[in-house]
Design a protein that fits this description.
Elements: H1 2-12, E1 33-34, H2 51-57, E2 67-68, H3 72-83, H4 87-100, H5 108-118, H6 122-130, H7 135-147, E3 155-158, E4 161-164, H8 169-185
Antiparallel strand pairs: 1-2, 3-4
Helix pairs in contact: 3-4, 3-6, 4-5, 5-6
């Protein structure tokens, strides 16, 4: 959801979006694990409130999977896409695979399909994953986030403001406008 809002904000403001890997469940084991529905979720993985409304406002389809995947391969694949200039389209493709189609994003076949969808060389992606080319970078990004006090996703830094969680589009606009106003007052 956050990336959708940032993409929209890029059209309205001259902002740079930089993403970093974060292990939401650092103790997750290979193969992932089954998850229990949360209170208020529908029988087919429909979101509870307020996430349902926020997703609808962002034009997103989100269904919770009954399985929580081991996401390290997806994070490393996203870093590979980033190094090839396709980070945002790849992120969207992986998002659709997981949240819309319920696919297991730990599986290399799912990540390769996302690569093909966005024009990223799927064989090179598979090679990068098998050689763990981006493991160090992903680990470093996670440690950096922890050192800044980030303990959940999505997390955003706009100017000197750091915040986490799903927020309405207007919230982002208010923060950006405040940063612009502060920068102008400081002569930047």
């Amino acid at each position: 959801m956050g990336l959708e809002r940032l993409t929209r904000l890029q059209e309205e403001y001259s902002i740079e979006v930089e993403t970093h890997a974060f292990f939401l469940r650092p103790d997750m084991e290979l193969g992932g694990r089954d998850r229990q529905p949360r209170e208020g979720e529908g029988p087919n993985g429909e979101l509870n409130e307020p996430l349902r409304t926020l997703a609808e406002e962002a034009g997103l389809t989100m269904r919770r999977s009954p399985h929580t995947p081991y996401t390290v391969p997806a994070l490393e694949a996203t870093e590979h896409a980033k190094q090839n200039g396709l980070e945002i389209p790849f992120h969207h493709a992986v998002y659709r695979a997981y949240w819309e189609r319920g696919e297991d994003i730990e599986q290399v076949s799912v990540l390769k399909a996302a690569a093909v969808e966005v024009g990223l060389d799927a064989d090179k992606l598979e090679e990068a994953l098998s050689q763990q080319t981006h493991t160090g970078t992903v680990q470093q990004q996670y440690q950096e986030a922890l050192s800044h006090g980030i303990n959940g996703i999505p997390a955003f830094t706009i100017g000197k403001y750091l915040f986490t969680g799903a927020h309405p589009y207007e919230f982002f606009k208010q923060v950006i406008d405040k940063v612009i106003e502060e920068n102008e007052a400081e002569g930047q």
